[in-house]
Design brief:
With about 230 residues, the chain is an alpha+beta fold. Helices cover about 55% and strands about 10% of the residues. About 0% of the residues have low confidence.
Length: about 230
């Protein structure tokens, strides 16, 4: 009875997967399962075809009362896909079929297994796409927050105000001292360039006061000389 069910299932699968199924023996075959997850967007700069899984099926004598022997592999020379790898995801996918196998023991189940395998693999791809999108969104939000900081000042609190006041006063004092130093430096330069004017006391102490007047007194006034000449 088991063999009859196997032959009947194989004929049905031929009509469902006419181009995808390939016989290996009377009890063994493989089916090419092409993935095409809904709303799957290839990330910018990543051009790739949807991946394909090769499902290997071998019937034990007691199938379908006993689980089929399954294996997964990529097509020969298949290019790597950025969101899916048969070799890396194989164990998780096969384990994901266990529940479906248990539920369908005693019945032809390969078509159901193909459907479940497709859903599991496409969900993996969708989850990875969503994870990449989340990372990009978080990076964009972080960049936006940094940009917004340029337009928002530090919130004013008593502590921040006191710090600002102290910094402002320190800056003003530093400016005042710098300006004073510059003013004194300019005055010093001016004293070097210009002759120093002596005060009256300084002139007296140096014996210079009155010298001009004494020289004038030593010479008789011209008018008095003229009067003397007339009188004579």
């Amino acid at each position: 009875m088991g063999r009859e069910e196997q032959i009947e299932e194989r004929e049905v699968l031929d009509s469902i997967f006419p181009e995808e199924i390939t016989d290996i023996s009377d009890t063994e075959y493989r089916i090419a399962v092409k993935l095409d997850p809904a709303e799957y967007d290839t990330p910018e700069g990543e051009e790739s075809e949807p991946p394909t899984i090769i499902l290997h099926v071998r019937y034990p004598d007691a199938y379908p009362d006993e689980a089929p022997i399954l294996d997964l592999s990529p097509p020969a020379n298949a290019p790597p896909h950025p969101r899916f790898s048969v070799s890396a995801d194989k164990d998780a996918l096969l384990k994901g079929l266990d529940a479906t196998i248990e539920e369908n023991l005693g019945m032809a189940m390969v078509f159901t297994l193909v459907t479940t395998l497709t859903e599991l693999a496409e969900q993996l791809m969708t989850d990875r796409k969503d994870a990449v999108n989340r990372v990009r969104e978080e990076a964009a939000l972080a960049a936006e927050r940094e940009e917004n900081k340029k337009f928002h000042g530090t919130p004013v609190t008593p502590e921040t105000f006191l710090k600002w006041r102290d910094d402002f006063r320190r800056e003003m004092e530093e400016n005042r001292q710098r300006e004073e130093e510059e003013r004194l430096a300019e005055l010093k330069k001016a004293r070097v360039k210009e002759a120093t004017r002596l005060t009256g006391r300084q002139l007296w102490e140096r014996g210079l006061a009155g010298k001009g007047d004494e020289e004038e007194l030593d010479e008789p006034p011209t008018e008095q000389v003229e009067k003397l000449k007339v009188a004579a």
